[in-house]
Design brief:
Number of helices: 11
Strand order of the largest sheet: 6-3-4-5-8-7
Number of strands: 8
Helix content: 40-55%
Structural class: alpha+beta
Radius of gyration: 21 Å
Distance between the termini: 33 Å
Order of helices and strands: HHHEEHEHEHEHEHHHEEH
Shape: elongated
């Protein structure tokens, strides 16, 4: 009996921790989402449902409205999630168009939606955040082409944000913490699923944080390009694959490194090198984990420190 109680307490603590993490983003979770993003415990949705139906150790910390689970007395975020459904849907249509154009650019191998939109948690004026994977040592040329699309997007009122670009030679993420793991597993690939699968295999460490999130929770049809588009892309890559491409890549990287050098500090998470264009000058992840630790401390059951 004591062993069962220990297992049950561990699962209920994981449920609470998972809901509290999402609470930082004003986002109540469904039972299926709790099971998918469950922190550090491997359990199916039936076990999660059983715990929430008759909790033993949660001490009334969690509440539910129409199948959406939230912590404390924050019932207002249920309506907030509902209100963000429509603008998220509109942004998704634009995101797919943006991703389709990105897929046509030379050296682009994968495009995935990240951030709030990946969770359907966007307002109408939010950015469309994407992660791009490129051929090795072509991250800066791909970024330069992508910036052209960003400028076009502004003409139509879209804020397109290719804020993280990495090469196929750098699929293994260097930073291993809950924030990075969550951002990784929640992203939604739209183009280059074979590369996405390779990135998954290169980052199996995320399973220690979220053992159930071994595939995207949201699945979107993969973008397919026409043969004429693939032909044009190959021609562009052929023209920029030799010394000319190498020189342009190096020039663009050095130019941007000089421009952004003053913004990189000890509190920055930015990485600007031959395989990364990660312009995160404020370490948002560290801020989130600090807030999460403070929130955990307010709930007796969630007394474990978040792993970093």
């Amino acid at each position: 009996m004591q062993g069962r109680d220990t297992v049950r307490r561990k699962l209920e603590a994981a449920i609470l921790e998972t809901v509290l993490y999402s609470d930082l983003f004003d986002y109540p979770l469904t039972y299926a989402e709790i099971a998918h993003y469950l922190i550090r415990v491997d359990a199916d949705v039936e076990a999660v449902c059983a715990c929430l139906a008759s909790p033993r150790f949660l001490n009334g910390h969690l509440q539910q409205i129409d199948g959406l689970v939230y912590a404390g007395r924050r019932e207002s975020i249920v309506e907030r999630r509902r209100a963000r459904r429509a603008p998220s849907g509109r942004l998704w249509m634009r995101a797919r168009r943006f991703a389709r154009l990105l897929a046509l650019l030379p050296f682009v191998r994968m495009v995935a939606v990240t951030g709030a939109l990946a969770m359907n948690n966007s307002t109408s004026d939010d950015d469309i955040d994407v992660l791009i994977i490129t051929a090795p040592r072509r991250v800066w040329l791909a970024r330069l082409f992508a910036v052209g699309l960003v400028l076009v997007g502004k003409l139509f009122g879209d804020t397109l944000c290719p804020n993280y670009i990495i090469g196929e030679d750098a699929l293994a993420l260097e930073r291993h913490d809950l924030f990075v793991a969550h951002e990784f597993v929640q992203m939604v690939p739209l183009y280059g699923l074979d590369v996405y699968d390779a990135m998954r295999r290169a980052n199996t460490w995320v399973h220690a944080f979220m053992p159930n999130a071994r595939s995207p929770f949201r699945r979107e049809p993969e973008i397919r390009t026409a043969w004429i588009d693939r032909f044009a892309k190959r021609v562009g890559e052929r023209l920029l694959s030799g010394r000319l491409g190498d020189a342009l890549e190096e020039w663009e990287m050095r130019r941007k490194q000089r421009k952004f050098s003053a913004r990189i500090s000890n509190a920055s998470d930015a990485v600007l090198d031959h395989s990364h264009v990660k312009g995160h000058f404020n370490d948002y992840g560290a801020q989130v984990l600090q807030l999460y630790a403070e929130l955990l401390a307010q709930f007796p059951l969630a007394d474990s420190e978040p792993e970093t």
